[in-house]
Each structure stands twice: as structure tokens, then as C-alpha cells.
TrEMBL record:
PANTHER family: GLYCOSIDE HYDROLASE FAMILY 16 PROTEIN, GLYCOSYL HYDROLASE-RELATED. Belongs to the glycosyl hydrolase 16 family. Residues 292-649 form the GH16 domain. InterPro entries: Beta-glucanase-like, ConA-like_dom_sf, Glycosyl_Hydrlase_16. This is GH16 domain-containing protein. The lineage of its organism: Eukaryota, Fungi, Dikarya, Ascomycota, Taphrinomycotina. Residues 60-75 have a biased composition (Low complexity).
């Protein structure tokens, strides 16, 4: 058959069909003939495969020149658009019991007739290559990157003109005549055809005329599709619709400018004012509401408030008409570790401020006296201010584990000079630095109208800790405000009236802060720096619960089984906080009342062993004393104290 130069090109260069899809080259395989259209064309055979299934029904597959596959079973015939569809149909026609697969991956019918085999993994990936005949993939020898070229007609010209039988065993080319030609890189040479080889090896034989060698070509593995069925591996061919592209969307929006006639109309001044009035009113309302709210919370009206005292500490001594010292070693009910003194080394005025500085007791006694063999009797010295003798005398005894208070500090009070019932207290102060230091600004009742503590109440305006901000129990960047109240010490309900506030990007010891307390018969209010920054607010108005109702006290004391009696029945709605209270300022150290909780911050003592708590604290001096500065920073500095009270009546308007 005459061939043009282009017809002798490789499979990859085959001309496309009318639909734009490259069709497989026509191969003369016995069993079917067709003619290509066009003058001068000769009759050519199309690729075909025939076999009989287990039921004895004849089945043939014929490849058309358009690249599709036709199949027939008996008298029925169908046309398949692709080898993939044909393979799926063959699988349905030949169920698994009819098909037998050999070790090398070939497939045979129950009658023993060889069929299309799956692509045999003869060579390791990715160097495996394949050849195709009529769209059917067959493995051949691997090739190197330098030899990635098609098997052209010139290469195949050396093959004999006799019919060739190309089979898969060991990827060799078997011929049915006496001569054997080796394909490029074939691992076998001079292979000869043997009877039954195709059936034994499971290969598929195609008789290729010498004139149609152009149909046998190399292609890369990437150029063929993976196996789609158990019957074989095929090169899928795209349909003519694969070249269809969706047209680009074209907007139908008008390109002409959108007319907005209302913008062209000039509004009158009246119309502009009508539109502006609602906006102006809204802005004025927001500003006015914000100002009224700020004004209402920023200051307490000074109506009926009278100044009780103001101390700016401008002299060089503490004003004795305002302040006096508490002197004792009893720990003020909290088992604190300091010895409260009136010595000028622990409390003094300098540079316009009052300083309360904790010092080590070993500065006034021998270090050995602190732990053993020393008795401190403040009563005999005429210094003790407590009515409880145990608060005035202490003896160190190493056997018992009792020691002298290891730290000396100061406690200033207005107990004997000034007190208020409702009013306001303002203090500007800077808190101390150092582990286990406990600064306090607080108030106690002058006359204990409702009984001993806490029945007559306690007002803690500010409490803090000198520990660093990393202390998980709230260090010197926290302020705590608390009210203590209850029928007895066992039923102190302070935790119902306690709140805290953290400083913002600073600490209470970094600079001076303003601490405020406002007190009326309707509320009690603590704040930090300004009135807007609330720390705690307690409603004591007639609409609020009384403190007895807030407490949810049991009917009987759990220890004595005695009835719990309301101590505030004779008081007002805000009792016990309806009597005169005086102001206290002190710097404590340690204690076993729980202000420094156990197992927090490597505390060197435990609250459950008060008799030896001071000793354990003192034994860790080398640890905690290193956190105390040598300067006045270890103490509290106060540069202003103001106290106000109601002038005419003890009720608010």
C-alpha cells in the first residue's frame, strides 16, 4: 500500500480525525476489512479480536477508523465510543467465574482462549515503557532518556515482511518465520515462536503486516492511561467534546452612566436644617448623657460633708493630735510576725511623707536572743497599748519553738482622736516591696456597739502584698477591699463582701496611688485612683438585704450548739456599719489568718501551726529578706490623708 512520508511517522505524529481527536493507526488484523475514504486508498484491515465465552457465544471486537470500538455477541451488535467503555462491557459479559488469570497477569476464558491481558509489570517503575497497537497498550523494554524517540518506519524497515507475532512473554518479540529481529533494548535476542506460547504465557497476539509497521510505536508511560479493568490496559482517547470551551461571560449591564436626578436638585436651606436637626440632637444627647454619667460617678457631692482632718506630713515629726501608735507583740488577732513599736526607726516623717518601714529585730537585740533565752515585757517598759497581757509579753525558747517577733514595724491609728459615721476617706500612698509584707489601710469601730469582733464590723479599705507580680496569690499589683461582719469569729462572712482590683500596667509600689472610701447609710464604696475605677460597692439601702439576711447563718452554732442570735436587731438597715469607725494604717509581716495562703509562692511557714510559724519564717530569712530593698521602698509611704464626715445629720438626702 503506498505510504507518504507523513504516514511513516511514529504513532505520536498520527494525523487527527475530523473531530480533532487523534485516532489509532489502521492495522491489518485478520478478521475484518474496511476501506478508507479518498481516492487511491486501498482496502485495509481494522484491528479486531474474536473469542468465545463460556456459554459458547461468539464475541468479536472491531476497531473503526474513527477510533471507536464495535463489538458483537452472536447476532447482537453494539458500538462503543472508547476502549474504556468496551472493557467495562466485556467485564459484564464475562463474569469472574468465566475468566482465569495466570501468574504473569494474562487473562483467558474458560475455554482456554487467550484474551487481552492487564499491563504486565515487567519492568520497575518509572522506567517502564509501553507500545500501543490500535489503542491497546503492550509493555516493551525500557528505554533510557537519550532514547525517548518513537519507533519510526525506518527502524521497523529492518523487520522481515512476513507476518509478525508480537507477544508479551519476557517482553521479547516473537516472529513466526525463521528470522528474528530485536526491538530496541529488548532483553531477548533471536527469540522464536513456540507452539502454545501465547496461551501458556497469557499474551495477546496481533498479526502485523510488514507494510503496517508504522502502527507499532514507543510511547512513554505518561502518554497512556492506567488500567481501567481486569481485562487490559488501554489508551483512553478523548471525545470530540473535550475541546469545547465555555464562552466568556459578557455582562449585559448598561455602559451608560446611571442617572441620579435627585443629586442634581439643589436643596433649600430649610431642607438641610430639617435633615440635620435629628443628627445634631443625637450627638448632643450622647455627649450630655456621657457627661452626666461621668460627673455622677467622678465625685461625691460635698453637700453636708465636713473635713475632719487633713494631714500632708509637711513637718519633721508625726502629728500626735491625729496619730498615735499601737505597741504590742500579739499580732492583732492574725498572729502577725511583727513587733509593733513607736520607735522612730520604724515610723517617721520625711520629705513630705509618712513612712512605715519594717526592720529586723536583730538590730535592737542580739541575734541569739531572738531564738532562745530572751524575754520582752512591754508592760514593764510602759509601752504596751493592748489590754490583753499576752500581747505585751513574749519569751524566746528554742525547746518550745517560740521566738521573739523577728521583725519590727509600726501601727498608726486615729482611735483616740478622730472617727466618722458616714463620710469619705481619701489617702494618697505608695505600697511596700518585699515578700510577705502586708500593708493595710482599714477602720475599726470606736465603741463596739454590737459586741466584740466581728459583730461590730471591720472595714478594710485597702490590703495588699509586697510580693512580686508573679506571686499567684495576688502580689503588689492587686488591691483588696473587704468588710468583716458576723455574730462571732466563727461566722465571719467577709467572703461575701470582698472584691479585688488589679492595677493597669503598673504596681501599687511603683508610684503613689489615690485610695478612696465613700460611706453613707445607702452604700459603701471603695475605689482606686479615681471614682470611676471601682474596687467594691456594697448596697446598704432599705431595698437591699440586711447583713443578717446576707449571711445565711445557721440556726445554731455548730461548735456549742447554742442558738445564733442576730446582734444587729437594734441597729439600722446598714448595721453594723452604722456607728463611728476610726482609721488605722500599718505594715504587717506574715501571719496565720490565711491572708498568705499555704502552698502559694514557696511560703516558709504553714498557717495550721501558729506556735512555730514565726520560727519557720525566721529560719528562711536568707530567702525572703533578699527581696526586701535596703531603702524606704520596703515600707509604705503616705503623703496625704483626708477624712470627711456628715456635718449635720448622719443620713443622706
Amino acid at each position: 500500500m503506498p505510504q507518504s512520508d507523513k504516514s511513516r511517522q511514529s504513532h505520536n505524529s498520527s494525523p487527527p480525525s475530523k473531530s480533532g481527536v487523534r485516532r489509532p493507526p489502521a492495522l491489518n488484523i485478520p478478521g475484518h476489512r474496511s476501506r478508507r475514504g479518498g481516492p487511491g486508498d486501498t482496502e485495509e484491515e481494522q484491528p479486531s479480536i474474536s473469542f468465545t465465552n463460556a456459554n459458547g457465544e461468539a464475541y468479536s471486537v472491531i476497531g473503526s477508523e474513527e477510533g471507536s470500538i464495535s463489538s458483537s455477541k452472536g447476532s447482537a451488535a453494539r458500538k462503543h465510543k472508547s476502549t474504556k467503555q468496551w472493557a467495562e462491557d466485556v467485564e459484564r459479559e464475562l463474569p469472574s467465574p468465566v475468566i482465569e488469570e495466570s501468574r504473569n497477569g494474562s487473562v483467558s476464558t474458560a475455554s482456554g482462549q487467550s484474551m487481552l491481558s492487564p499491563m504486565q509489570q515487567s519492568f520497575p517503575s518509572p522506567e517502564r515503557r509501553h507500545s500501543t497497537i490500535g489503542g491497546v497498550s503492550l509493555p516493551v523494554s525500557p528505554t533510557t532518556p537519550e532514547r525517548k524517540q518513537s519507533l519510526t518506519a525506518q527502524t521497523l524497515a529492518s523487520l522481515p515482511s512476513a507476518m509478525k507475532n508480537y507477544s508479551r512473554p519476557n517482553s521479547a518479540l516473537e516472529v513466526n518465520d525463521e528470522k528474528t529481529e530485536e526491538l530496541p533494548d529488548s532483553p531477548r535476542k533471536n527469540a522464536t515462536a513456540r507452539p502454545g506460547m501465547a496461551e501458556r504465557q497469557g499474551s495477546v497476539a496481533f498479526d502485523v503486516p510488514a507494510g503496517e509497521k508504522k502502527g507499532l510505536a514507543y510511547i512513554n508511560e505518561e502518554e497512556i492511561s492506567p488500567p481501567r479493568s481486569s481485562l487490559g490496559s488501554f489508551s483512553d482517547r478523548r471525545s470530540s467534546t473535550s475541546s469545547y470551551r465555555r464562552p466568556i461571560f459578557q455582562s449585559r449591564r448598561l455602559t451608560a452612566p446611571v442617572e441620579k436626578p435627585w443629586l442634581l436638585k439643589k436643596r433649600t436651606m430649610r431642607e438641610r436644617w430639617v435633615s440635620a436637626f435629628p443628627l445634631i440632637g443625637l450627638v448632643i444627647g450622647i455627649i450630655g448623657s456621657a457627661f452626666i454619667t461621668w460627673r455622677g460617678v467622678s465625685i461625691l457631692p460635698n453637700k453636708n460633708l465636713c473635713l475632719v482632718f487633713e494631714d500632708n506630713f509637711q513637718g519633721d515629726t508625726i502629728n500626735s493630735t491625729i496619730w498615735s501608735h499601737e505597741v504590742q507583740v500579739g499580732g492583732f488577732g492574725n498572729h502577725q510576725f511583727e513587733w509593733a513599736t513607736a520607735d522612730s526607726s520604724e515610723s517617721f516623717v520625711a520629705n513630705g511623707s509618712l513612712y512605715i518601714i519594717p526592720q529586723l529585730t536583730e538590730t535592737v537585740v542580739q541575734p541569739a536572743d531572738i531564738t532562745d533565752g530572751y524575754t520582752l515585757n512591754l508592760t514593764s517598759l510602759g509601752q504596751c497599748t493592748s489590754t490583753n497581757s499576752s500581747d505585751c509579753v513574749i519569751t524566746s525558747n528554742s525547746t518550745l519553738g517560740t521566738i521573739l517577733n523577728p521583725v519590727r514595724s509600726a501601727f498608726l491609728t486615729t482611735k483616740n482622736t478622730h472617727s466618722i459615721r458616714y463620710g469619705r476617706v481619701e489617702i494618697r500612698a505608695k505600697m511596700p516591696v518585699g515578700d510577705w509584707i502586708w500593708p493595710r489601710i482599714w477602720m475599726l469601730p470606736k465603741d463596739n456597739v454590737y459586741g466584740d469582733w466581728p459583730a461590730s464590723g471591720e472595714i478594710d479599705i485597702l490590703e495588699s502584698r509586697g510580693n512580686d507580680i508573679t506571686y499567684t496569690g495576688n502580689g503588689r499589683n492587686w488591691m483588696t477591699s473587704t468588710l468583716h461582719w458576723g455574730p462571732s469569729s466563727s461566722y465571719d462572712r467577709y467572703w461575701k463582701t470582698r472584691n479585688v482590683r488589679m492595677t493597669e500596667q503598673t504596681t501599687l509600689s511603683a508610684d503613689y496611688h489615690k485610695i478612696g472610701f465613700e460611706w453613707t447609710d445607702k452604700y459603701m464604696y471603695m475605689w482606686l485612683d479615681n471614682r470611676i475605677r471601682q474596687v467594691m460597692f456594697i448596697d446598704t439601702s432599705a431595698n437591699a438585704k440586711t447583713f443578717w439576711n446576707r449571711g445565711d447563718f445557721p440556726e445554731r452554732d455548730s461548735d456549742t450548739q447554742e442558738l445564733l442570735v442576730n446582734p444587729w436587731t437594734e441597729g439600722t438597715h446598714s448595721a453594723p456599719f452604722d456607728q463611728d469607725f476610726y482609721l488605722n494604717i500599718n505594715v504587717a509581716v506574715g501571719g496565720t489568718n490565711g491572708w498568705f495562703p499555704d502552698d502559694v509562692g514557696d511560703k516558709p511557714w504553714v498557717n495550721t501551726a501558729p506556735s512555730v510559724a514565726m520560727r519557720d519564717f525566721w529560719n528562711k530569712k536568707d530567702v525572703w529578706y533578699n527581696t526586701w530593698p535596703n531603702s524606704t521602698a520596703r515600707g509604705m509611704a503616705i503623703d496625704s490623708v483626708k477624712m470627711y464626715k456628715k456635718c449635720s445629720a448622719y443620713t443622706t438626702d
